[in-house]
Amino acid sequence: MDGGNRSFVSEFVFVGITHSWELQIFFMVFTTVFYLSSMTGNILIVFSVTVDSHLHSPMYFLLASLSFIDMGACSVASPKMIYDLFRKRKVISFGGCITQIFFIHVIGGVEMVLLIAMAFDRYVAICKPLHYLTIMNPRMCILLVAAAWALGVSHSLFQLAFVINLPFCGPNVLDSFYCDLPRLLRLACTDTYKLQFMVTSNSGFICVGSFLILIISYIFILFTVWKHSSGGSSKAVSTLSAHISVVILFFGPTIFIYTWPHSSSQMDKFLAIFDTVVAPFLNPVIYTFRNKEMKAAMKRVCKQLVTYRKIS
């Protein structure tokens, strides 16, 4: 195409989840309930870990950091999706689309590293208990969280570096309810096959690699617990099972989207809804219901808030 006759795209149109009005109502209620529940649960975890001295330990510091990220994970796409369910024409500006992609990859990258950091924390606590407080000191915890953010931002910027200057001059319809990098690349007015392969391979390799590292780590930890079984082994297994559940819930849909070559658009949408709406809600549920200390701390915090409201 001649550059002088090229009209640049300023916005993108979402196809959305479904064209059925009944299903749109269902998804609006479903997403709203899960979004509010996710925000409430994760805020309560962060607040409880912050104010309750019983939870001032490396494990809960990392858990609070994960809950903070989950607040971003459920906020990056859900509010826009809920708003669009009220609209016939679902649009997002070019800048808004790039911003959404940026935060999706930042949050995904940070969460992957945090899950690895939490696995390392459990490894030290179970396999090297006498050195736990020495290794997992406050400085190490802060370094792990800082590394997670640095790697998340770097990964996202690396992904967007290939997209930001691409020409978008023709079709602007995205068969999704949020801005997805692989689908956005297909709309560029140039051959992006190699770029799509590189971007997808990069995200897929990071996801699969991180998942394998975590699974191998937890298998090794479980083997260590079984080998040195004692009175505290049941508590360790309960904690590890919660961690493994969160890992599978987070990585499962993401790996499928980036590595399955013949996935359908509807399947991708279903997995995306699970990843952006359901998973951030299940994380606090899994960690709170499987952790007696967290449940006790939340009860104390809720009682303090009720008492404060009565006094005020």
The number of distinct helices, counting runs of at least 4 residues, comes to 11
Overall structural class, as computed from helix and strand content, comes to mainly alpha
Strand order of the largest sheet: 2-1-3
The percentage helix is over 70%
Summarize the biggest pleated sheet.
3 strands, mixed
How many strand elements?
Answer: 3
The low-confidence parts are 1-7
DSSP strand (E) fraction?
A: under 5%
Give the terminus-to-terminus CA distance: 68 Å
The global form is globular
Please give the radius of gyration in angstroms. Answer: 22 Å
Average pLDDT, all residues: 84
SSE topology string: EHHHEHHHEHHHHH
Would you give an account of this structure?
The protein is mostly helical and 312 residues long. Helix content is 74%, strand content 3%. The protein is built from eleven helices and three strands; from the N terminus they run E-H-H-H-E-H-H-H-E-H-H-H-H-H. It has a three-stranded mixed β-sheet. Helix 4 runs antiparallel to helix 9 (233-259). The longest helix is centred in the last third of the chain and has 35 residues, at 193-227. It is globular. The termini are far apart. The relative contact order is 0.14.
Short précis:
With 312 residues, this protein is mainly α. 74% of the residues lie in helices and 3% in strands.
Question: Topology of this structure?
Answer:
Layout: E1 11-14, H1 21-51, H2 58-75, H3 78-84, E2 90-93, H4 94-127, H5 132-135, H6 138-161, E3 173-174, H7 181-185, H8 193-227, H9 233-259, H10 265-289, H11 292-311
Parallel strand pairs: 1-3
Antiparallel strand pairs: 1-2
Helix pairs in contact: 1-2, 1-3, 1-10, 1-11, 2-4, 2-10, 4-6, 4-8, 4-9, 8-9, 9-10
